[in-house]
Amino acid sequence: MMNTPRLLRSLVGWVAAALLAAGCTSSTATGPTGPKPTTPVKGQTPNKAPEPPPISNRAKLLFEDAVKAMEAQKKSKAVDYPSLERKFKTALEADPNLAEADYNLGVIAERQGKSDEAKSWYQSALKKKPSLRQASENLAVMAQNAGDIGGAVALYQDVLKRYPDDGSSRARLAEIYRQTGDHDKAMEFARAALMRDPQSTTALKVMMRSYVDRKQLALAKLVALRAVKIDANDPELHHTVGLILQQEGDLDAARLSLKRALEVRADYVPSHIVLAQLALESEDYPGAEEHLRKILQAGGKNAPAHLNLGVAYKGQGQFDKAMQEYDEAEKIDPNLAAIYLNRAIILHRAKDAPERAVELYKKYISMAGGDVALSAEAPVFGLLREAEAVIQAKAEAKKAEEQARQMEVLQKQQEEELKKAEAQEKAQGGAPANPANPAGNPATPPAEPTNEAPAPEPAKSAPGQKNPAAADPDEPTDEF
Where in the chain is the domain with CATH 1.25.40.10? Predict the structure, then answer.
């Protein structure tokens, strides 16, 4: 459950702040340990702690000045944590007994993701003023977010021991039960918290999350809207309404609710995450880039955010920037399999490096499959086959190109040999060699054609007879 650290506006009470600590994660422990908190006896009062020493007027004035600066920055939606930190430290220097300054410094540290520093400030505040119940609760929530459920429960129980009518700690315990799947216990503790504090949005959040978990969206929405009426400046409430609308399929209304959460608090990371995902799904890559940059500004060591920013750059055709984001994601979490899939797609389709892409596709398959093989319909297998086909086509094209080059070389060699032969003939002063007249003798010119018919051959005489053509014309013929 996300922590909601509260800044103290005065030395006598608390009010809900408009900012949530970023970077908290849900616990995966198995639930509360030790004795369960019991319903207090009516009229029971907490053990009285010794009265804290009086605070100097100068420290009070400096503290109030710091609070006014915080409120002004919150209204302008431009919170300068370092300047607020300096102001509260100045008040603390004026009077070291000002426990509220320690507490607010813890809140400021927590909002900047400085968990160890925040714990130190909260513990310091409790030493000076054990009645600062909110410091104990914030420590408990930090333990819960870090997965130390046992430590968180012990702190909540300590608060309930000293303040039996405290509703907030009951609401926090209800959230632990919800996270472990015990929705009956979660609802029981949430209702008990509301009995003691009907305005407890923490308890209402537990109830609406429980309804969402069990897909009872109508009930979840009713509780969420009730909570929004109590505190319209709580971004988590608008965010949860957005999640409900998203599950109902009303994406436009979901976006409006999520954007409302960002209007309340511009750096509310959960809403940026969901809006970035919705933008990627609708291929609104510039919109996704805007939200992902906000996420990284809140905490740079976020591998999925770098990965998705790379996807947004890829969608805009900025492939080099995309590869840089994949590199950043790999530095943070080299076991994030999607890094290698997305990098392979760019190498395959934009960088003309299918060989390297095939290696990365196979690496992704081995990492993403784990103990269970990926489905045969998974897109990566189609991409792998496509890249392998490109490699084969490139190999065949290279082979054909090599063959064409060899033919060209051979043709050039033949042309060179022919040119050399012609040059030798010219150098020897002779005509080019003629295969039909290798000796080089002058050829007899062919006879010119004539139109005269050839003379008929003289008739041949039979054996023993004279040839009439050869006889004397004056000689009488023998008729007999």
Answer: 1-35+52-146, 165-267
CATH, range 1-35+52-146: 1.25.40.10
Do 274 and 258 form a contact (C-beta atoms < 8 A)? yes
Which pair of tokens denotes residue 8? 């103290």
The pLDDT tens digits for 309-325 are 999 999 999 999 999 99
317 Ramachandran zone, left/alpha/beta (phi>0; psi -120 to 50): left
Amino acid at 143: A
Task: Write down the H helix ranges in 95-234.
Answer: 99-111, 115-128, 133-145, 149-162, 167-179, 183-196, 201-213, 217-230
Q: Do the beta carbons of residue 201 and residue 231 sit within 8 Å?
A: yes
Q: 165-267 maps to which CATH number? A: 1.25.40.10
The total of other beta-carbon atoms located within 10 Å of residue 47's CB is 8
Count, residues in the chain: 480
pLDDT by residue (tens digit) across 54-91?
889 999 999 999 999 989 988 887 889 999 999 999 99
How confident is the model over 234-267, as pLDDT tens digits?
999 999 999 999 999 999 999 999 999 999 999 8
CB 121 within 8 A of CB 102: yes
CB-side exposure of 343: number of CA atoms within 13 Å? 25
pLDDT tens digit sequence for 287-306: 999 999 999 998 768 999 99
The residue among 427 and 108 whose pLDDT is bigger is 108
Cβ atoms of residues 169 and 156 within 8 Å: yes
Q: What is the pLDDT of residue 165?
A: 87
Q: Considering only CA atoms, which of 348, 296, 284 is closest in space to residue 325?
A: 296
Cβ–Cβ contacts within 10 Å for residue 448, how many? Answer: 5
326 φ/ψ sector (left φ>0, alpha ψ -120 to 50, else beta): alpha
**Crossing angle of helices 99-111/115-128, nearest 10°?**
170
